[in-house]
Amino acid sequence: MSGRAQKGSALLDALAQVGACALFLLQLLRAVPASLRHFRETVRQVWFVGAMSLVIIMTCGLFVGMVLGLQLYYVLSIFGGTAALGSVVSLSLYRELGPVVTALLFAGRAGTSVTAEIGLMRATDQLSAMEMMAVDPLAYVAAPRFLAGIVAMPLLACVFNALGIFGAHLVGVTWLGLDNGTFWSNMTSSVDVWKDVVNGVWKSVAFGAVVSLIAVFQGYTTPPTSEGVAYATTRTVVFSSIVVLALDFVMTAFLM
Amino acid sequence: MTQRRSYQIGTGLFILLGFAALAYLATQTTSVANFRQGPSYVLEARFTNIGQLKLRAPVKLAGVRIGSVESIELDPTRLDARVRVSIDKRYDELPDDSSAAIFTSGLLGDQYVGIQPGGSPDMFEDGGEFVLTQSSMQLEDLIGKFLVNGSPERKPADDPTPPEAPANHQ
To answer: Is ipTM beyond 0.90?
Structure first.
């Protein structure tokens, strides 16, 4: 009996979280114009979530591209279609893997640190102190990190894609001996700027917004204990991964 | 102050790198690329059927890429496909009785224009036209022919190789 009641309340809790997150988004958007007065802070956050994530994004992009090159070469060689390696790799990177894998890495690398940072500010009452000094913490702490995520994610995804192409080229052309011209010409003839490249950029903008919203929200509403901050950081990764993958399906269906 | 300056430079570099990657993806890996590589000249070829030939498909001589398909259109009066190919200026010594054919790279690969050089002492000028062309091989037609020729009701005189021929291999 108590188990069912607990289950019901857990469901209600989850529902309340979603609602609170949506309301938080509205507050955040309202704070965005004010946060532009602290433009320096936004720039610093772009540096923190974007530039500092470059190394992991580039390394992972390279390896994802190399794995794609190997795997697709094997599959395509069954059909005698290894010439299509360049176009298959680039299309799957631009349309799907680039934005999604970058968003997952971004949640792990930048989202967690944003949650932990804001969560500690909450736990050590820094946010309340700001309010007392008539500084809106939404405009000074939350909104810059949110905006920085939206700015940084598409740029990171582009870097990821570029390194992925490089990795696939390294495996397919340099190691497996595919023709360099075929690799590039098949790619250039099958990839479209608007339908593929820009499509992926839109996806990554949306993912950047979602991941940084969840990260900021989890940090902002964390229980002010060390355990609470730990939970909030975990929840950031779990929730943003689920939401990114679900949103990816929806966006793919609409942008097709 | 120096701390602030260094992260601003870092941010600037990051944004620059991101946009550079975007520009690279958008121009070098899409159809915007390959627009024109160096000076070239244009030749024309007419085909009764171009099959799956696409714009920017390679033009090859002896298997080496020497140019690309620039435009494909239907001639409204002669009702055949007029294909304009741009050839790299480096290869301007093509005999004007060379022939053009549409081939497929591999069984399911893309189609390309293959050129067999002729023996004429005169060379192609800019805007010249291939007199000898060979249309793309249509898999459907081949299958149709095979079905018609391979049917058991055919007259023996039609086919020089009788179906018993494979038995000779053993």
So the answer is: no
